Amino acid sequence: MDREAIKKDLLAIIDPYIDEKELTTEISESSDLINDLMINSAHLVDIVLDIEEKFDIMIEDDFIGKMDTVGDALDIISEKIAG
To answer: Which residues form the Carrier domain (predicted)?
Structure first.
């Protein structure tokens, strides 16, 4: 699975948790999940669970702490899929 396909699936997972829909048109790999996209920490846990289910991977707690941006999430997903 290439990075663009993973990104498309990731954005579909993140979208329901973004209250300000105008933010979805400006998402880039540098977009911070909490500060830029206004996703609260409780929803971040839900997003991780959705990612684990969608990609059939397990994301350990120490990786969750490193998932600050969309790009970070893509890196972690890619690493887990490859690993």
So the answer is: 1-81
Q: In angstroms, how far is CA 42 from the centroid of its own chain?
A: 14
pLDDT tens digit sequence for 6-59: 999 999 999 999 988 887 778 999 999 999 999 998 999 999 999 999 999 999
Q: Using alpha carbons, list the distances in angstroms from residue 19 to 3, 4, 10, 16, 52.
A: 25, 24, 16, 8, 22
Kindly report the pTM of this predicted structure: 0.92
Give CA–CA dist 19/16, Å, rounded. Answer: 8
Q: Where are the domains of the chain?
A: 3-82
* φ, ψ of residue 58 in degrees (nearest 5): -120, 125
| Residue 3 neighbours by CB under 8 Å, 6+ apart | 74, 78
